[in-house]
Design a protein that fits this description.
Number of strands: 9
CATH topology: Immunoglobulin-like
Number of helices: 3
CATH class: Mainly Beta
Distance between the termini: 54 Å
Strand content: 35-45%
Order of helices and strands: HEEEEEHHEEEE
Helix content: 10-25%
Largest sheet: 5 strands, mixed
CATH architecture: Sandwich
């Protein structure tokens, strides 16, 4: 009789403590990886964040010490780009072309912490951009254009 390899078998395998080679990745809980937590502080209209961090798993939180809602959008910068390239990019498209990949975003109301956390693996030798792309009103500039952009480098 052939066994189905669906969810029922997976549950039975876990419950029975059986290991079927090559079916599912084995996960060890003996030494779970604990990602250090880094709190990014948002103010009206700046970030306070470390300039450098160790590479590897890292968890980010956002604490808004400002009077308006802020976000931190974390993005991986292309290897040949700098924070200066991001700041002086003449158009939003030019700025987007400086980014290799978006990582994630956290939001926080004024005077509060973000209700979520963002965990990622920082790559050694790479630079990450922190940006707030919110605005206080439709006729106001983006917080980014008011200087709310920063970077950090993974060692």
């Amino acid at each position: 009789m052939a066994l189905s390899r669906g969810p029922a078998l997976a549950l039975a395998t876990v419950a029975a403590g059986l290991v079927l080679p090559g079916d599912w990745p084995q996960v060890s809980t003996r030494h779970p990886v604990r990602a250090p937590t880094v709190t990014i502080i948002a103010r009206d209209y700046t970030f306070e964040a470390p300039d450098t961090l160790p590479s590897g798993p890292t968890t980010f939180t956002l604490l808004n010490r400002g009077t308006v809602k802020h976000e931190v959008s974390l993005m991986l910068l292309r290897p040949n780009q700098t924070i200066a390239d991001i700041r002086r990019g003449p158009t939003p498209e030019d700025r987007r072309n400086s980014v290799e990949a978006p990582i994630g975003v956290l939001f926080a109301p004024p005077g509060q912490a973000s209700p979520a956390q963002l965990t990622t693996t920082l790559l050694p030798g790479r630079t990450y951009i922190l940006a707030c792309n919110l605005r206080d009103a439709v006729d106001m500039p983006l917080h980014f254009n008011m200087g709310m952009v920063d970077s950090l480098r993974a060692k």
